[in-house]
Amino acid sequence: MFTPAIYRTTITDSRQAPVRNLSEYRTSARAILQISERQTDLRPVGLFSLGQRYAETLRLWRERFMRRRITLAHIGFDEVFARMWGLYLAYAEAGFRSGYLNVYQWSFVSEASP
Fold this sequence. Notes:
alpha+beta
């Protein structure tokens, strides 16, 4: 049996703006489940949080990027790009470590399934 799944970066409920569908904004986990319930016959049966693991992945990416930063000029990227990308990776890591951001994988089943 096929089990539909969603893999999505989320924000905390307190920062959630009203949304009509999942592609509009960063959504909270609650908003994803509410939209799924209103617009589909799918119901969640499994949830796996990857936020802390993703924070560690971002840390490793940032460290590797900083070690290889000197090569950026050789492939056409300037110092402004290097600083912006380093800041983005650090910001994202902090968001996941703090719990402000998370990555979830949901598994669903259809209510219509036998």
